[in-house]
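Pilot study result, target chain (356 residues):
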Amino acid sequence: MSGVYIHIPFCARKCAYCDFASWPGRQADWRRYVCAVEEEIRAVGGGPAETVFFGGGTPSLLPAEWLCGLLDAVRETFALAADAEITLEANPGTVSPDSLALYRQAGVNRVSFGAQSANDALLRAIGRIHTWAQVEEAVRMAQDAGLENINLDLMYGLPGQTVRDVETALLRAMALGARHISCYNLIVEPGTPLARGVERGEIRLPEEDAQAEMQRAVCETLRKGGFERYEISNYALPGWECRHNINYWLRGDYFGFGCAAHSLVDGVRYANPDSLDAYLRGARQTDRETLAEEDVRLETVMLGTRTRWGADISYMKANALEPLVRSGFARICAGKLVLTDAGWEVHNAILRQILE
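Predicted structure:
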């Protein structure tokens, strides 16, 4: 299996926690950037592809016809499967019935909305520019356009957030008809406005125990709603898992296009520059690495143990496995170590045990 990722690095406003390669404004560069990405796509030799993912930034900020043009370039370059999963990341407030109809007509069949919370005060606290009412409106417009495969991104561990806030967001997301929910623990990335606020004591995050309680509430609430946890932060109704991300976690090949995009093809990883200006000047694949056997082992274990499919025990320290199983942190199925919910809570500590 192989996938195609297209990075759109533009956004309306940078969120307080974001350290992604994204830039607010810069409308003068939008068209030039899209042309450069299309040129990059067409320069690739092609091959089969089963998924396409437009990520960002905020892809839906750009004119819909431009993104549809990029998808045409993918189809003309790659042998795209007839049942390909084609995902568009979007922010509430940046889509309309017309744009969603264009996406659907072009072949987009999955939309991922950055909802983050159902509490408008919490959204303002992290720099989001939408409201929960706009999330509801965006989801309904997408459904009216025939897009039923909808993911909502949510977060926990936000400043001032409670367990009840988390549960409320999940219940509202399920009530909207989301088939997939990603729920991430807020990470304070160095150099972000959030990090500076925490360092100065102006922003207080929930205590570690409270965040652990939120995580358990996420698992329990979604499980009761019929969602299955198939990766540490990802939950889906049966049959609605994100095929594109599964390919990443199982280390399939993928081609990345655009500023800061990464690729893994035939054991070689390469990346475009994370500088928008450098990319626009024509810099491509400035970082290239043929993965050594040890790199493959580490990645296979690190990524595989994040999923319900697990990772091959032959890559791990044999004497570390039985204690994990005995303690309820993992089970061994068909030669794979599969972590339980309890194991996922201490994933990093388990990695140290099985890899050192």
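One observation from the pilot: The chain has a mean pLDDT of 95. A full batch analysis is planned for the follow-on phase.
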